[in-house]
Write a structure and sequence with these properties.
Structural class: alpha+beta
Oligomer: single chain
Strand content: 15-25%
Shape: elongated
Largest sheet: 3 strands, antiparallel
Length: about 80
């Protein structure tokens, strides 16, 4: 598994902004990118997360533990 696959990433439509906004709550507070097309916004988000992880590794920083999970409740129920 790639390091970025540990972090939940999602894109959602914003009525207020009239565009798609990309999020990665474990690494960033709020939206980190936006666009008119959902798929393109998600591709941008993936690149931003990969770059952030590479940047933190290059600095010797420790990455935060992944905490945001879309299926967290399902994971607990399955245990």
């Amino acid at each position: 598994m790639k390091p970025e696959d540990h972090y939940h990433r999602f894109v959602r439509w914003s009525d207020e902004d009239q565009c798609y906004i990309g999020y990665c709550p474990d690494l960033y507070y709020g939206g980190v990118c936006h666009g008119e097309q959902e798929e393109a916004t998600y591709a941008d988000l993936r690149a931003i997360v990969r770059d952030e992880i590479a940047h933190r590794h290059a600095k010797g920083d420790t990455l935060p533990e992944p905490a945001a999970r879309a299926t967290r409740d399902l994971d607990f129920a399955a245990a």
